[in-house]
Amino acid sequence: MRAAVLTLVLLAACSADQPAAPSVDNPLGRYTLRTVNGGKPPAVLNITTTHKLEILDGVVNLHATGTYTDSTWLRITDQTGARLVTDVSQGSWMRAQDRVDFSSVRGEDYSMTVTETSLHQDLVGSRLIYRK
Fold it and tell me: Taking a C-beta distance cutoff of 8 angstroms, is the pair 74, 87 a contact?
């Protein structure tokens, strides 16, 4: 009997030390932009006769408090030259089935598809994939 109790205690102690496996139900963490339309950034998001918009990098952080930060680094080139822009969206997030829905403090609402290790976003006709 004592050996069985000791075995249960040891098993419980070992499993408590194991980190939680990634889960669609628990998408918390930091996701870094890995691909845009299948290729590594930088990538052109939009080009016209007057400007070119490129995405250089991006990071999405989903916090346990139900808040998020979505930072995107862009290069905009027009007739005046090239300038670097950092776009930061912050607000609240909520998981809904295979999506994460974002609501920013500046009034933007958007969604990303979530898997165990990635977020997928369709943006301006481009497919962005962020990975943990």
Answer: yes
